[in-house]
C-alpha cells in the first residue's frame, strides 16, 4: 500500500509466534502513512488485524479463551509477569491500534473488552517512533508494543526483525521532509543564525 519506490516488503520478516495476536485497528488508522499495525500483521504468522470501532462478534468468539488486553490500567499485569501463567499457544494478546484517544474509543464501544485482564509494558521503555510525540513516558507504537510483548513472552530478540521495516519507514519519512524540517518540527530545534 506504499509507492513502489518506498516499498518495505523486502524488509518484512516472516516470523512464527506462538502467542496469538489480535489487532483491533481504528478505521482512521488504515490509510495512515505510518501504519505500524499493518507491519505487524504482515510480519507475524499468528496474527489477525480487524478494522472497526465496534466488534460485537468478538465477545462470543473469545468466550473461554485466555485473552489479555494490552492497555494500561490500574490492575494491569506487567507483561513479564505473564510468562509463567500459561503456555504461549493458549494466550491471546488483544492490541487496540490508534491514537490513545481512538484506542480508548474502541474500549468504550466494546465494554466487555475493557473488562478483560490487562497487560502493561513496564517501566523505562523508549519509543523509536521519532515522528510522533509520545503522550507520556513508555508510550510505544503498536508495532513496538507487540515486539516488546512477544520478545518478553517467547524469547528476547526473537521478534526484533519486525523493527527493521519500522526503522526504514521512519527514516524515509524524515528524508522526505528534510533534516531541517524534521529537526524543527520533531526535535524542537531552531535553525542557527
Task: Describe the protein.
With 193 residues, the chain is of the alpha/beta class. 35% of the residues lie in helices and 15% in strands. The chain has helices at 36-43, 56-61, 79-82, 100-109, 111-114, 142-154, 163-177, 179-186, and strands at 20-25, 47-51, 66-70, 77-78, 91-97, 118-120. It has a 6-stranded parallel sheet. The longest helix is centred in the C-terminal third of the chain and has 15 residues, at 163-177. The radius of gyration is 17 Å and the shape is globular.
Summarize the structure.
By secondary structure, the protein is an alpha/beta fold.
CATH topology group of the domain at 11-122 and 138-160: Alpha/beta knot
Physical arrangement of strands within the biggest beta sheet: 2-1-5-3-6-4
Uncertain stretches: none
Strand elements, count? 6
CATH architecture of the domain at 11-122 and 138-160: 3-Layer(aba) Sandwich
Major sheet description: 6 strands, parallel
Mean pLDDT: 84
- CATH top level of the domain at 11-122 and 138-160 is Alpha Beta
Q: Number of DSSP helices?
A: 8
Straight-line N-to-C gap: 41 Å
Family: Belongs to the TDD superfamily. DTWD2 family.
Protein name: tRNA-uridine aminocarboxypropyltransferase
Organism: Pseudomonas linyingensis
Keywords: S-adenosyl-L-methionine, Transferase, tRNA processing
Write the SSE topology.
Blueprint (H helix, E strand, L loop, with lengths): L19 E6 L10 H8 L3 E5 L4 H6 L4 E5 L6 E2 H4 L8 E7 L2 H10 L1 H4 L3 E3 L21 H13 L8 H15 L1 H8 L7
Parallel strand pairs: 1-2, 1-5, 3-5, 3-6, 4-6
Attribute tags:
193 residues; alpha/beta; Alpha/beta knot; six-stranded parallel sheet; DTW; transferase; tRNA-uridine aminocarboxypropyltransferase activity
Amino acid at each position: 500500500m506504499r509507492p513502489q519506490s518506498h516499498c518495505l516488503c523486502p524488509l518484512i520478516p516472516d516470523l512464527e509466534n506462538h502467542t496469538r495476536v489480535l489487532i483491533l485497528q481504528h478505521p482512521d488508522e488504515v490509510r495512515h502513512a505510518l501504519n505500524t499495525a499493518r507491519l505487524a500483521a504482515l510480519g507475524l504468522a499468528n496474527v489477525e488485524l480487524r478494522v472497526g470501532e465496534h466488534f460485537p462478534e468478538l465477545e462470543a468468539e473469545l468466550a473461554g479463551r485466555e485473552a489479555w488486553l494490552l492497555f494500561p490500567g490500574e490492575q494491569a499485569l506487567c507483561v513479564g509477569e505473564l510468562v509463567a501463567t500459561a503456555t504461549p499457544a493458549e494466550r491471546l494478546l488483544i492490541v487496540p491500534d490508534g491514537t490513545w484517544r481512538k484506542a480508548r474509543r474502541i474500549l468504550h464501544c466494546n465494554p466487555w473488552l475493557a473488562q478483560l485482564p490487562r497487560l502493561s509494558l513496564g517501566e523505562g521503555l523508549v519509543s523509536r517512533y521519532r515522528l510522533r510525540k509520545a503522550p507520556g513516558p513508555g508510550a510505544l507504537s503498536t508495532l513496538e508494543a507487540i515486539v516488546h510483548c512477544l520478545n518478553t513472552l517467547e524469547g528476547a530478540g526473537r521478534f526484533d526483525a519486525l523493527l527493521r521495516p519500522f526503522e526504514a519507514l521512519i527514516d524515509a519519512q524524515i528524508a522526505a521532509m528534510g533534516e531541517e524540517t524534521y529537526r524543527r518540527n520533531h526535535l524542537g530545534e531552531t535553525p542557527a543564525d
